Amino acid sequence: MTNTDKDRVVIFDTTLRDGEQSPGATMTHDEKLEIAGLLDEMGVDIIEAGFPIASEGDFRAVTEIAQNANNSVICGLARANFKDIDRCWEAVKHAEKPRIHTFIGTSPLHRAIPNLNQDEMADRIHETVSHARDLCDNVQWSPMDATRTEWDYLCRVVEIAIKAGATTINIPDTVGYTAPVESADLIRNLIETVPGADEVIFATHCHNDLGMATANALGAVAGGARQIECTINGLGERAGNTALEEVVMAMKVRGDIMPWKTGIDTTKLMHLSRRVSTVSGFQVQPNKAIVGKNAFAHESGIHQDGMLKNAETFEIMRPEDVGLTETNLVMGKHSGRAALRAKLKDLGYELADNQLNDVFVRFKELADRKKEVYDDDLIALVSTGADEE
Ligand code: KIV
Ligand code: ZN
User: Fold this and answer.
1) Which ligand 1 atom is the nearest neighbour of the CA of 207?
2) pTM, two decimal places
């Protein structure tokens, strides 16, 4: 796959591989198949379905996801050895569009683990990428911990992987160490320096240890990356991975300065977020961007009043764009009369001004005692007032 459309960013979802690696996030076989189906339907270009050598269960899940995929490329992960790569191919080969993703840690700390010197590791990369390419014409290669790998060595191994047949070069920020400007420069410099770089797609794979995964991924795209690796809800090891919903909506909302397109149907984001949260057991924090419970909720009187007059006053995207039916006006002690009137209207009550004033006084008394006033509380307030008259 080469960059034919320079503004198209490929979305590579790794919820089922890197996301599922999160301690405690294990999903059942059927849950993995369901999530893969939803990702495919939403327009994810590539689904990293698992790590086939890791377990029988992973192998079976990747195989079945590959058999059932309609549109997405199905990718499996493999370490840099023939056994992993063969096992990965056995699982992904059932897909109409299969991909093998093979990786090795290239930073000094990671080279020390298999105890390979630079030359030995370079040979290993050449052999394993060539082997993967003999099996599959869509091969992704990753130098794990790329952002802490010496610049000259990184250029050298990326060039070897391209020559051996890799079609996508992924540059992982494995420990969430990089910063947005650096991330952009790294990709730009690699594309300018490494021979053959314009023949492949560069990908960005960021972790969120410093809370910069989304910014780093978008920085990398500014530098020329055209594949973002991400997960639903930012699920992933430690502080997680780049959140799919954040990068996709950032590009959609700020297309003026980030003129890059994806193939994602964003109206399916909220449903996917909720399903991933349920099956992984990882709750989404209420103030999480895009998919948090409060992302489209307004409580303060000034905000609610503004929202009722013109939603753009306090919202930069429409709830419908991410699959919510409407903005949520949360009724609490900061809410004003206009919001109360609108909420009661939604509940089927159109009150005269004097009735509204009465309910408003009692609503404020209640809101002082309760964090949130629910629809049933409001109905009770209106009914009590009506009974007394
Ligand atoms: O974070 C990482 O480096 C990875 C690789 C396997 C791509 O997940
Ligand atoms: Zn990762």
Assistant:
1) 1
2) 0.89
